[in-house]
Design a protein that fits this description.
cell membrane; membrane; mainly alpha; two-stranded antiparallel ribbon; globular; lipid metabolism; 262 residues; 3% strand
Length: 262
């Protein structure tokens, strides 16, 4: 019975990894406007979930903010002359202008979600398919390695007040898995040695994305971001780590070129 409880969330994690892989494959294959529409859909749904979590009484407000997020992404990516600096602040301003719980935290997370949505489009378009696969792989490998190491090795909790299931053994295993993945890309001729060091840093950013969403759900008294995925929560639950990782990559690309080939 105890073993069943210990591995009870294995199936949702495997399914979420498969969902991420499927989404990544579709994004890479479609490209162009189809790719933008898919990214916009994922981003606007996450914004909708975020708005519902922090203000569940009026669903119309959540839908309006989600629609605004979608319009901002399409406007920015579809018409490059329209800067993201002009349209993207509209979404966090909408969160600030409406009454809600944990307003500052939710506003900050909304910025991260918008930046990640923009970043996913830019990463594939400018850095190339290989870079996109690397980022997706880092998030998935880190999550899978962390899950199994945490359950098998146990040990001290990483941040028990926010995420009681996460352990230091799982966290470090996630970093090691990401570094091994980075080494694989380097061995395949798709990156420099810096990629091996960068991969666990990006994995850590993904873990922090997961922690941030867990903290928010605890603060607002919610188990999942929504019930859109029956038995597995919402889109934000599945893509919180990818959001954190993508935000860090976007910040890093402002300073230097990614050590991975397109």
């Amino acid at each position: 019975m105890k073993a069943a409880a210990q591995w009870g969330d294995l199936r949702p994690r495997v399914l979420s990894a498969l969902v991420m892989l499927a989404v990544g494959a579709i994004e890479i294959w479609l490209g162009g406007w189809w790719f933008l529409i898919l990214i916009t859909l994922l981003t606007s749904v996450m914004i909708w979930e975020l708005a519902r979590l922090s203000q569940p009484k009026d669903p119309r407000i959540a839908l309006a903010i989600a629609a605004l997020a979608a319009l901002c992404l399409i406007a920015d990516e579809g018409w490059p002359s329209l800067s993201a600096w002009i349209v993207f602040p509209l979404v966090p301003l909408a969160f600030m202008a409406t009454p809600r719980r944990q307003q500052k935290a939710v506003t900050a997370i909304s910025i991260a979600v918008m930046v990640a949505g923009h970043g996913l489009f830019v990463l594939r378009d400018e850095a190339g398919t290989v870079a996109f696969l690397w980022l997706l792989g880092v998030v998935i490998v880190s999550d899978v390695m962390g899950y199994f190491a945490g359950r098998l090795l146990g040990g001290p909790k990483f941040w028990p007040a926010i995420s009681p299931k996460k352990t230091w053994s799982g966290t470090i295993a996630g970093w090691i898995g990401a570094a091994i993945l980075g080494a694989g890309f380097v061995a395949a001729g798709h990156g420099t040695l810096w990629l091996i060091l960068l991969s666990p840093v990006v994995a850590f950013a993904g873990q922090m994305g997961d922690i941030a969403e867990s903290w928010l759900k605890r603060r607002v008294g919610a188990k999942d971001s929504s019930n859109l995925i029956p038995g597995h929560g919402g889109v934000l639950d599945r893509f919180d780590a990818l959001t954190g990782a993508m935000v860090l990559v976007m910040l890093l690309t402002r300073a230097f070129e990614l050590p991975i080939g397109g």
